[in-house]
Amino acid sequence: MKELADGLGTTARVYEALRADILAGRIAPGSRLGFAALVERYECSVGALREALQRLSEQALVTAEPKRGFRVMDVSPEDLRDLTEARCEIEVLALRYAVTYGDLGWEADAVAAHHRLERTPTFCAEDPARFNDDWVTAHAAFHQTLLDGCRNSRILATATALRDSAELYRQWSAPQHDRSRDIAAEHKAILDACVERHAELACELLAAHIQRTTDALLSSVGS
Predict the structure, then answer these.
(1) Where are the domains of the chain?
(2) Which residues 6+ apart lie within 8 Å of 71 measured at CB?
């Protein structure tokens, strides 16, 4: 039993580390995930790595290629449009459920997550073209906390998976980010609508927030 527990613990560790590296852009979209290099990088067995990659494949963060192994999900204007459409339907639906049914604990958690996000610098001091890793974490936590009030586990799981896919595009978009855009004000407006239990307004603001990022990115790549 101890060996089984150790194996599960290693798989979980590798999964979390690899997922974090992909979402932070440390492993670029479209990169091939060679087993030998990753086993050395994460100090794990091939079996633990394979299980971690299978979990990430289920979340559409990596893709399995027959006889060729795994690679990080690629990014493209076409996929971004599809992803945005799905998020504006499903993530917004999850937020509607959260605003309608979330309790006081959810509300307090959302306020706390926003406070952390608001106090965290957006861009990396050493490389202003990159998002600050702490901001990426705080940003993901804020949006996830808003959705966590959704009591429908199926809707919440789907919305969360879509948000994970969107993180790849967020890293891709950093150099083209519109510095004149007041994202902090957008986040505050969404939070206020949630706390005041204005479900329709909160959903409208979130959909606009998602779409605005997509439109700016597509415009920057001429698509």
Answers:
(1) 2-72, 77-220
(2) 30, 31, 32, 33, 62, 63, 65
